[in-house]
Each structure stands twice: as C-alpha cells, then as structure tokens.
Design a protein that fits this description.
Helix content is 34%, strand content 20%. The chain is an alpha/beta fold. Helix 3 packs across helix 7 and helix 8 packs across helix 14.
C-alpha cells in the first residue's frame, strides 16, 4: 500500500502557561512555571496534594453559545486550540468541511466537572428532573471529538482514542496513519483534559501524586530528580493539523515539521508501572517506522512525570537504546502533567524547539537521581540544531506511544 508523507501545518495550545502556542513557548524559554496552589483540593477529605496546573483565564465566548451549550471546559480548550491551528495552517472552509479533513482527539474521560454536577442533582432524591438535556454531551467519552466535529462542521472521519496519559500522542499517530494510507488529506489531532480533584485523587490513591510544593508550588514537579515524589496534575489542550505532504504543497501551506515514525504497543507486565523493556521496544519500533538509526536522534522529549518508577524505567530504556549522547528533557517541571493533552502540547513544544534550534531543560532538575543520571539530562537552555526528535508518552494500563519528528 502506498504511504504518503505526513507533515504538520498548524498548531494550537491551551496550557497552564497561557492561551496559545506563543505563550507556551515564551513561558518555556523563560523558565516560567504554570503550577500554583489549587484551593479546590483543600476541601477534599483524605487528599494530600495541594499543587496543580490550571489554565489561566480563557475566552470561552470565542465559541458561539449554540456550540458551547454541549461543551465542558475540556471541549472548549480543544476548540480554542483547534481554531489557532486552523488559522496558522490557513485552511479554508471548503477544505475543512469537504469530507477529506478528519479529526482524532481524545480525553482521559468525559468531563469530570459535568459528571460531578450530574450526580449532585441525581443522588439526593434519586431524580433526573433537574438535569439538563445537554449534560450527557459533556460526559460521554468522545465529548471533545464530537463537540469539535460539530463546531467545525466536519464531515470526514472522526476518531476519539482515549488512553489516559498517552491519549494525545496516540491520536497524533492514528491521524498520521489515516493520512499516510490516503484515507484523509488532513486531520486535526491531539488531546485535551480539564482539572478536577478526582483526577488528582486518582494518582494520590495509587501513591503516584506529588505532595510537595506547599512553600513553593513552582518546585513541586521535578522529573528525573533525586527529590521527585510524583505527578502534579494539570489541564489544557494541544491540537495539531496534519496533512499529506502533497496536499500541503498544493495549497501553498507552510510546513512546520514532518511525522516520520510512530509506534504504539501494550506493556502487559503491570497495570501501573511501566517496564524499561516495553518502553525500549516502543521507541525502537518508532525508529524502525521512521527508517532511521538510533544515532540520528538529536533530542528526546521524555514522558517523565516525576514518579519514582516511571522516570527510572524510561531513563533506563532511553539509555539502553540511544546511549547518553542525545539530550533528554521533560516539560512536566514547567507544566505539570496535562494528562490526555500532554502528548500533544509537548509535541508542539518539541516542534518549536526544532524550529528555534533550542532545547528546553527539565525544570527543577538540580540533582539527577542515580537511576536517571544515565541520561544526557538537559539542565540549562541549550542552542542546538535538531533534525530528528523522539517524543514519548506512556499511560496507566500499559499503553505506550512514541513519535519520531523531523525538522521541516
């Protein structure tokens, strides 16, 4: 089967560092933190974390009220990011809605905020009388994809892959494959999530959430560091517009990067703790798909969430496969873990690094743990050309993903 080249022509982001890719990039370069104390966590009995990454004020009214009625925050984030990506790509209405442009976007679950509101109304009197008809469209698992498709009037294929922390990266890979085999000319893709105490609580219950940062929230998330103590949960959305190379060139679109390799596989060894062997195999398959050697990777954007086991397994896998030449960094020290959005937001940031020949360091990495010191950890901002970058994301349930990106 003939495979077409797949390129990135538009990017949009909503993150704890602000609204838009420009705010994301400027915040990363400046070393700013998107983490702060979240008052909503203090009233939850038994919950220990207090720090999270919230999206600053955003203009929800940029989405018409008719479309907004069925949207929770996670769908609004995705819609705002998609509008930015479409504008950058210069995609016209006819191409967007003509049936050859599709969408692959997911979230970890439907809206936790809407789900909480539903049960607050339902449980006291076992009654549905006060529940609005629009609430289900916020709760359903494919809420973001469905709302985005309706809002943009898409008629191409719609995919809503959900794989927790791998969601964003997985949807990018699936979108790239749909274009590569000629099923679509273009695809909007990525991930989105909204913050809720239940999200934080999930990681706290399994002993994977950070409980530090009370005195200095910016220091709570420390991937690869000896003092790391877990995940700091965040929210946001990342949306990329992918096109076949021929389609992009035919309409005169600017090409930001090319997706040359993708791998997704299951680590069935453990539901919660990733194994170095499975991570190694996932990265190796992505490199094979890209038809490049290990020595050609110039930078690795790590999943590295700040957990003891996860960071150690990824560090070992990267070192075993690539050695310690390619610089490695994680953006979760700046952003926290934006869950389903993380793979897409971090892919966008990696493409910006490639464009600017600049490597963003891992924030709060001052003393690499012994098990993570096997890497070429990036401790300071570096000016460095990047031709090929490897992007990793791994999820609870053993869903591993890796992307290979090539500079335009």
């Amino acid at each position: 089967m003939h495979l077409q080249r797949v390129v990135v022509t538009g990017m949009g982001a909503i993150s704890p560092l602000g609204n838009g890719v420009k705010e994301l990039w400027s915040g990363l370069v400046a070393g700013r933190s998107g983490l702060s104390r979240m008052e909503g966590l203090e009233g939850v009995k038994g919950l220990r974390p207090r720090i999270a990454g919230r999206v600053p004020e955003f203009n929800a009214k940029a989405i018409p009220r008719k479309a907004r009625r069925t949207m929770s925050n996670l769908s609004i984030f995705a819609a705002l990011a998609a509008l930015e990506a479409i504008e950058q790509a210069g995609l016209d209405e006819a191409t967007l809605t003509g049936g050859r442009t599709g969408l692959s976007v997911g979230s970890t679950t439907g809206s936790s905020q809407a789900l909480e509101q539903f049960f607050k109304l339902y449980l006291p009197e076992n009654s549905l009388e006060a529940i609005r008809g629009t609430e289900f469209f916020k709760i359903m698992n494919h809420s973001a994809a469905a709302n985005l498709a309706q809002f943009l009037n898409l008629s191409g294929r719609v995919v809503a892959a959900s794989a927790a922390c791998s969601t964003g990266c997985l949807n990018i890979g699936l979108a790239a494959e749909a274009i590569a085999i000629g099923k679509q000319d273009a695809m909007l893709c990525g991930g989105t999530d909204e913050l809720h105490p239940l999200t934080v609580g999930t990681f706290d219950i399994i002993e994977a959430a950070s409980i530090s940062g009370s005195d200095d929230p910016a220091k709570a998330s420390c991937p690869f560091d000896a003092k790391r103590d877990g995940i700091v949960c965040s929210e946001g959305a990342g949306i990329l517009l992918l096109e076949s190379y021929d389609h992009a060139k035919a309409r005169g679109a600017g090409i930001l990067a090319e997706i040359t390799g993708f791998s997704s596989l299951c680590d069935s060894s453990n539901m919660a703790s990733p194994s170095a062997e499975a991570i190694n195999r996932c990265m190796a398959e992505a490199l094979k798909d890209a038809e490049i050697s290990e020595s050609e990777i110039d930078y690795v954007n790590a999943h590295a969430t700040g957990t003891l086991q996860g960071d150690a397994s990824e560090a070992q896998a990267v070192a075993d496969l690539l050695g310690n030449t390619a610089p490695v960094s994680s953006l979760k020290g700046h952003l926290g873990h934006t869950m389903a959005a993380s793979g897409a937001i971090e892919t966008i940031a990696t493409i910006r690094m490639m464009q600017e020949s600049t490597v963003i360091p891992t924030a709060n990495l001052t003393s690499p743990a012994a098990e993570c010191a096997v890497l070429n950890n990036v401790l300071h901002l570096q000016e460095r050309p990047i031709t090929y970058a490897l992007k990793n994301n791994f999820a609870l349930g053993g869903i591993n993903t890796s992307l290979v990106l090539r500079r335009a």
